[in-house]
Amino acid sequence: MQLSPDQLILWQHGWFKLNVTIVTTWGLMTVLAGGAWLLTRKLDQQYQRTRLQSMLEIIVLTLHQHLEEVGLKPAIRYLGFIGTLFLFIATASLAIIIPGYRPPTASLSTTTALAIAVFVAVPWYGIRSYGFKHYLASYLKPVWIMLPFNLIGEFSRTLALAVRLFGNMMSGSMIGAILLVISPLIFPVLMNALGLLTGMVQAYIFAVLAMVYIAAASRVHPH
Predict the structure, then answer these.
(1) Cα dihedral angle (136, 121, 161, 111), rounded to 10 degrees?
(2) Distance between CA atoms of residues 83 and 78, nearest Å
(3) How far apart are CA 54 and CA 58, in angstroms?
C-alpha cells in the first residue's frame, strides 16, 4: 500500500524521478498564481465589489489581523509570506475532493521544504527588523554559553514543524486507506469530509506557528 505520493512514480529517466508530489506541488503553485492574477486583475476600490472580491478581502483582513495580534507590525510586511503558506497548505487539503488526488503535504519532502522556508524567514525578518549584529547577539542571551542550545532550539522547532504537518496528513491518508478496504462505499465520503476539516486546521496551525516564530525573532530586543 503506497501512502506517500513520493512512492508514486509517473516518469523516470536515469536518476531523475517525476513523482506525484512534484506534479501536484507545481500544479497547486500554478493554480494559486493563476487564481491570484485572475482574482486581482479587476479589483474595484470603490463600492461595486463582487462577492468573490469581498470573500478575498475577508481572508486577507483576517490574516492581517492575526499578524498584528502576535505583534508583527507592520503586518503588510509579513502578509505575503504567511498568506502563501496558509493558502498552499489549505488548497492542498481542499483538493482531496478531486478523485485520485494525493496531497503533496502527505510527503515529508514537502513539509520539510515548508519548514525550511520558515526556518530561513525567521532570521531574515529578525535581521531586517534589528540588524545583523543585534539579531546574532540574541543567540548569546542570557549568557554566551547558551549559544549551542539556542541553535539547537532553532533546528528542533523547524523539525517539529515538518514532522507535525507530515504526521497529521499521513495519519489521515493511512486511516482513509484502511477504512477504504473495510467499507469502500461509506467511509471514503466521511474521511474526505474529515480530511477537509483536518487540512484547514493544520494550515491554520502551521501559519500561526510561523507567525509566532517570526514574531519572536522580530522583537529580539530593542536597539
Answers:
(1) -140
(2) 8
(3) 6
Distance CA 185, CA 125 (A): 49
- Across the chain, the runs of DSSP E, i.e. the strands, are 9-13, 16-19
Q: Is the omega angle on the peptide bond into residue 99 within 30 degrees of 0, that is, cis?
A: no
pLDDT greater at residue 188 or residue 203: 203
pLDDT computed for residue 168 by the predictor: 66
Give the span between the Cα atoms of 76 and 79, in whole angstroms: 5
Confidence of residue 45 (pLDDT cuts 50, 70, 90): low
- Contact in structure between 202 and 165 (CB atoms under 8 Å): yes
| Amino acid type, 164 | R
The CA distance from 167 to 109, in Å, is 12
DSSP 8-state assignment for residue 145: G
Instruction: Find how far residue 86's CA is from the centre of its chain.
Output: 5
CA–CA gap between residue 203 and residue 90 (Å, rounded): 5
CA distance 33 to 144: 45
In this structure, are residues 125 and 218 in contact, taking their beta carbons and an 8 Å threshold? Answer: yes
- The x, y and z cell numbers of residue 190, run together, are 466521511
Pairing of strands 16-19, 9-13: antiparallel
Angle at 113 between CA 12 and CA 2, to 5 degrees: 50
Give the contacts of 204 (CB within 8 A, at least 6 positions apart): 86
Taking the alpha carbons of 146, 147, 148, 153 in that order, is the dihedral positive or negative? positive
